[in-house]
TrEMBL record:
EC number per UniProt: 3.6.5.-
GO-annotated molecular function: GTP binding; GTPase activity; ribosome binding; rRNA binding; tRNA binding
Shown segment, full-protein numbering: 1 to 310 of 609
Gene: bipA
Record keyword Membrane present: no
Residues given in the record as GTP binding sites: 17-22, 130-133
Catalyses which reaction(s): GTP + H2O = GDP + phosphate + H(+)
Subunit structure: Monomer.
Tr-type G domain residues: 5-200
A Gene Ontology term for the protein's cellular component: ribonucleoprotein complex
Source species, domain of life: Bacteria
Name assigned to this protein: Large ribosomal subunit assembly factor BipA
Organism annotation: Ornithinibacillus halophilus
GO BP: any one term: response to cold
Length: 310
């Protein structure tokens, strides 16, 4: 089995305010994914406007970080229970999660909500105990709380082996022990590379790409974001999209976008394991599978949240 060692796909999950955004900013900065004179002037994951169409809320952002020879896609997840379907869909694109927990506050309701989803999807977890600089931080106790929560939520034996990295995202320090902090994010990156499984390289198989999130752009219209589950996808390729009712629609991939940092860039081709955005069909919807014309095989449909009427 060939693995794509050049890629890791993870979701970052946390209770609100435990420091996801600060951490991702720090990982971006430290990795040098931004050019030297380029400011991180937009906070990484608060940049999106909330868009709604047909009850689908687009909050997720992909941040692609190049660390040495590996591309790490970090997908943000909403912590709120109203977005359960979206959280599940995002988790279908990744192989692991980084659970961020405030070393003073400990586990909170949204910690439980998002961790439950990740464990159910059999994802590989790592834990980042953040804010260890807080004067009243209690890292050891909080690690015990996290372990109890894993057990209570039915984590399997492998998931219970989660590694812990201690960090102060705000100060840019991290380490494998609370009191042994280095002024780099290397301990977090090496924990991700070591523990999160690399995607299986199935680029020789027939294409399957599942639309997991939607985005829009005045220039290219509707954009479907997802992971190349199998095979490869190219600009100009003739494909079919398989709809929920079993019908299909043929279209040509007009543009493909990859990610660098917080930016989307045009690319020519993507292969199994890559998270990319596709344009070319205006009525593409969440959950649909894009396949080659001569090999039509839909993936199981994905759950979509009902709009909350309040
Ligand atoms: P998010 O809601 O999980 O994205 O959390 P943010 O990254 O927006 O952080 C929430 C608040 O916690 C902000 O005021 C941050 O400045 C602060 N914060 C983030 N990381 C740390 C940290 O390591 N130490 C301390 N003391 N504060 C932090």
């Amino acid at each position: 089995m060939q693995l794509r060692e050049d890629i890791r796909n993870i979701a970052i999950i946390a209770h609100v305010d435990h420091g996801k955004t600060t951490l991702v900013d720090q990982l971006l900065k430290y990795s040098g994914t931004f050019r030297e004179n380029e400011q991180v002037d937009e906070r990484a994951m608060d940049s999106g406007d909330i868009e709604r169409e047909r009850g689908i809320t687009i909050l997720a952002k992909n941040t692609a970080i190049n660390y040495h020879d590996t591309r790490i896609n970090i997908l943000d997840t909403p912590g709120h229970a109203d977005f359960g379907g979206e959280v599940e869909r995002i988790m279908k694109m990744v192989d692991g999660v980084a659970l961020v927990v405030d070393a003073y506050e400990g586990t909170m309701p949204q910690t439980r909500f998002v961790l439950k989803k990740a464990l159910e999807q059999k994802l590989t977890p790592i834990v980042v105990l953040n804010k260890i600089d807080r004067p009243n931080a209690r890292p050891q106790e909080v690690v015990d709380e996290v372990l109890d929560l894993f057990i209570e939520l039915g984590a399997d034996d492998e998931q219970l082996e989660f590694p812990v990295v201690y960090a102060s995202a705000i100060n840019g320090t991290s380490g494998l022990e609370p009191e042994e902090q280095e002024e780099t994010m290397d301990p977090i990156f090496s924990t991700i590379l070591e523990h999160i499984p690399a995607p299986v390289d199935t680029r020789e198989d027939p294409l399957q790409f599942q639309v997991t999130l939607l985005d829009y752009n005045d220039y290219v219209g509707r954009i479907g974001v997802g992971r190349v589950i199998r095979g490869s996808i190219k600009v100009g390729q003739q494909v079919v999209v398989m709809k929920k009712d079993g019908s299909t629609k043929s279209f040509r991939i007009s543009k493909l976008f990859g990610f660098i940092g917080l930016k989307r860039i045009e690319i020519e081709e993507a292969v199994a394991g890559d998270i990319v955005a596709v344009s070319g069909l205006d009525d593409i919807n969440v959950g649909e599978t894009i396949c080659p014309v001569d090999h039509q095989e839909a993936l199981p449909f994905l759950r979509i949240d009902e709009p909350t009427l309040q």
